[in-house]
Amino acid sequence: MDTKTQKNALADRILNDDRWLKVLAKDASADGQFYYSVKTTGVYCRPSCGSRTPLPENVQFHLTTQDAEQAGFRPCKRCKPNLPPLKEQLAAKIALACKLIEASDEIPSLTELAEKSGLSMYHFHRTFKAITGLTPKAYSKAHRENRLRNQLQKSDSITNAIFDAGYSTNSRFYEQSNQVLGMTPSNYRSGGKNTEIRFAVGECSLGSILVASSPLGVCAILMGDSPEPLVEDLQNRFPNAKLIGGDATYETIISKVVGFVEAPELGLDLPLDIRGTAFQQRVWQALREIPAGKTLSYSEVANKIGSPKAVRAVAGACAANAIAVAIPCHRVVKNDGGISGYRWGVERKKALLDRESLEA
């Protein structure tokens, strides 16, 4: 076989390999699945490498970096295939920043967090928001607010709970206590005493539905087979709050929710009073970014928030969500696309997804 024929045969072999299309597309989703080497340069690369596309007759494919190096190739200095993918490196940096925030009594400055992460302030802020769904400030705020709620439940005094949660002064906290708790600390500690929670119960094709609001916004959307268990659930959440039902003005809010359940294309834009841990809020924000008619697996949500190993915790956050449809935990499915685990029943989850798929 002459040299030209040999080159053509090598080129044909590569051109007929599906992996070559991913190299041509510089497909980042293929990173880690395989590597390619170029015999004229002596280096091996990720599929997404931004270097000039080599001639196919000079290319070989490798399943691992070890395979490529044993074949005599060295890692590309541009895409650094011997290091974790950039996305994983950034996720690890942001995870460390989250731990720093959670371990600090005072909210760390953006400068400090960026320096610890080895990133510029702009890059850090943008990356943190992309991975967690929250800004560093919002993440810090959510973590401190959840710590306060826990401290109020177990501390002997409100003042101690405020300081233990990381607030430097009482006055600084009381200026924003309604935004943090939806009520005063003493009322929160006593199960919502002296706090008004407006609610209404309606009926839709999926059964009964209850919508409740604090002064900050909608704090619960509950679904079930009949109204009584839903009202009991709300009472258990705010055992000493003043529950106000049958408000004619509030009926318009529940009509919006019922309308959205029946016709998802209408959209649902309501102020929400979202209460949860910083991790839960990251998950819930990610859920709100899933378009109607689309689904993500629990693993994909975990990857989206930069915590790929926290699949069970993601499932737990979905189960803890008390604001149905507005925080669409029904759009999270098993890795194989199967429908499982829904606080308000698997059949309701399937029905919601079927309606959204028809409208998509």
Count of extended strands: 10
CATH superfamily of the largest domain, by name, is Winged helix-like DNA-binding domain superfamily/Winged helix DNA-binding domain
The major β-sheet equals: 4 strands, mixed
Radius of gyration: 26 Å
Query: Structural class of the helices, strands and pairings?
Result: alpha/beta
CATH class of the largest domain: Mainly Alpha
CATH fold-level topology of the largest domain: Arc Repressor Mutant, subunit A
What is the annotated CATH architecture of the largest domain?
Orthogonal Bundle
Question: Averaging pLDDT over every residue, what do you get?
Answer: 80
What is the H/E string? HHEEEHEHHHHHHHHEEEHEHHEHHEH
Instruction: Provide the β-strand percentage band.
Output: 5-15%
The structural domain count equals 5
Work out the helix count.
17
What are the segments in which pLDDT stays under 50 over at least 5 consecutive residues? 155-185
What does this protein structure show overall?
- With 360 residues, this protein is an alpha/beta fold.
- The chain has 5 domains: 3-75, DNA Methylphosphotriester Repair Domain; 86-132; 140-189, no CATH class; 196-266, Methylated DNA-protein cysteine methyltransferase domain (Double Stranded RNA Binding Domain), CATH 3.30.160.70; 278-359, Winged helix-like DNA-binding domain superfamily/Winged helix DNA-binding domain (Arc Repressor Mutant, subunit A), CATH 1.10.10.10.
- Helices cover 47% and strands 13% of the residues.
- It has helices spanning 3-15, 18-24, 65-70, 86-103, 110-117, 121-132, 136-154, 158-164, 170-174, 177-181, 185-189, 227-237, 251-262, 278-288, 298-304, 311-320, 346-359, and strands at residues 35-38, 43-45, 59-62, 74-75, 196-204, 207-214, 217-224, 242-245, 296-297, 332-333.
- The strands form 3 sheets. Strands 3-1-2-4 form a 4-stranded mixed beta sheet. Strands 7-6-5-8 form a 4-stranded mixed beta sheet. A two-stranded parallel ribbon has the order 9-10.
- Strand 6 and strand 7 (217-224) form a beta hairpin.
- Helix 7 packs antiparallel against helix 8 (158-164) and helix 7 (136-154) crosses helix 14.
- The longest helix is centred in the middle third of the chain and has 19 residues, at 136-154.
- The chain is elongated, with a radius of gyration of 26 Å.
- It starts with a helix and ends with a helix.
- Mean pLDDT is 80; it is low at 155-185.
